[in-house]
Each structure stands twice: as structure tokens, then as C-alpha cells.
Amino acid sequence: TEEPKPETLHDASDLALPPEMPILIDFHALKDILGPPMYELEVSVRLNQPGVAIGLAWTPLGGEIMFVEASRMDGEGQLTLTGQLGDVMKESAHLAISWLRSNAKRYQLTNASGSFDLLDNTDIHLHFPAGAVTKDGPSAGVTIVTCLASLFSGRLVRSDVAMTGEITLRGLVLPVGGIKDKVLAVHRAGLKSVIIPERNEKDLEEIPANVRQDLNFVMASTLDDVLNSAFDGGFSTQARLNHLNSKL
């Protein structure tokens, strides 16, 4: 007698579900299919005290938002930088400090003892979280200035705004790379506004229309532009305050 032949599937359609049975993929199935999430939403409540601002970084995996934190303490005018920073990023921090010191009186920024010399008997610590990741490049300049302006003014930076841009000693904002990926990171994080260098405006053409519609873009050519957009109500200079007072 002949042995029975094993059953075989001659067509992939034998495995298909009936057309009237929809395939449902829930959150748990999606995680199994795609793996763990590549991006995590940052929590805006981290900006609940002065001395914190949101910057933007570019990585081979795309853009990311990046928090910059600052604190001050009694000391001898030392600047401490932590967070695995490269030389260019360290130079940006020193540029930011120099610009703020030279404009402290104009913006009415003082240290803990009320002096316009921000480093007088004062040490500053700047930290860039995710310390295991090396960070470099000039694009955090505007974020460092904003973070320190928040620290010395005691004012909170807006929690819905991120920024990127290189700075100069004269307070200009220079163009940077990776704008498309950085803007996508802002949108992904649920923020509402992004400050970018004015000379990067042309790069917005690469960003999907739905993303552009959801965000408010601030084109900055100077650090005055950045600070006025990063704080609710703007960031007045002494000259402007005197002008307003003279109107009262």
C-alpha cells in the first residue's frame, strides 16, 4: 500500500485570512513589529526653574532636542562644563559668557550679590545631559546664551520653544546645519516654536508642509532677537525700560 503523502500548501493564498476579517494591530503588536521606540518625548516641565533652555542637536539618526542647564554658586569666577563636550562647543560656552558679561548692564543681569560683573565671586556650571554622548559643534551658542540669561535674570525660558544657531562675540546669529532634522525633532517633541538663524530660512523648503503649518518659526539675526522670542513678554534692555518708564 502507498503511504499517505504529507499535506502541503501549494499556494500562499491558503494561509490568507478571509477578506471579511480585518487585521488589527494594537500598540503591543506594533512594538513587537518595530522594536522599542527610537525617540522619547522630552518633558517640558524640566523648564520649571530659571537656568534651563531647550536646544537642538543633529545625530546620524536624525535631530534631537537637547536641554542645557546652568547653575551658579559662590566662587572665584570659574566656568565648569560637563556633558562630554568637544572643543568647539566649549568655545561657544565661553563666547556666551563673554557676550553676556559685556551686555549685563544693558539687560540688567546681575550675580547673587547684585553686581553686573556676572563672574565676580561667582562660579558657573553648565551641564548638557546625556553625558555618555559626545557633543560638539557651534549650534548650541544661542541656547547657552538663553540658558544663562534665564539664570541671571531669574526668568523662566518658554517651555514650548527650542532653538539653534551659532553666535559671535558681537551678538550675531550665524547659520548652522541639519535644520530639517532639527525642526522635525521639535515637531516630534510637541513644541510649538523654533528659533533658527535668519540665514537658514531657505532650508525650511525641505520641511514637510504639515510640519511647517504646526510650528511657529522665528528667524533670528541677533541675540536680541533670540532673547525676545525665548521669554514670555520679550527680554527688555535697559534703554527700552527707560523709554517705557518715560512714557508713564
UniProtKB/TrEMBL annotation:
Species annotation: Micrurus lemniscatus lemniscatus
MF GO annotations: ATP binding; ATP-dependent peptidase activity; serine-type endopeptidase activity
Taxonomic superkingdom: Eukaryota
SUPFAM superfamilies: Ribosomal protein S5 domain 2-like
Active-site residues (renumbered): 139, 182
InterPro entries assigned: Lon_proteolytic (IPR008269), Lon_Prtase (IPR027065), Peptidase_S16_AS (IPR008268), Ribosomal_Su5_D2-typ_SF (IPR020568), Ribsml_uS5_D2-typ_fold_subgr (IPR014721)
Protein name, as recorded: Lon proteolytic domain-containing protein
GO biological process: protein catabolic process; proteolysis
Family (UniProt): Belongs to the peptidase S16 family.
Gene3D superfamilies linked: 3.30.230.10
Domain Lon proteolytic as annotated: residue spans: 47-233
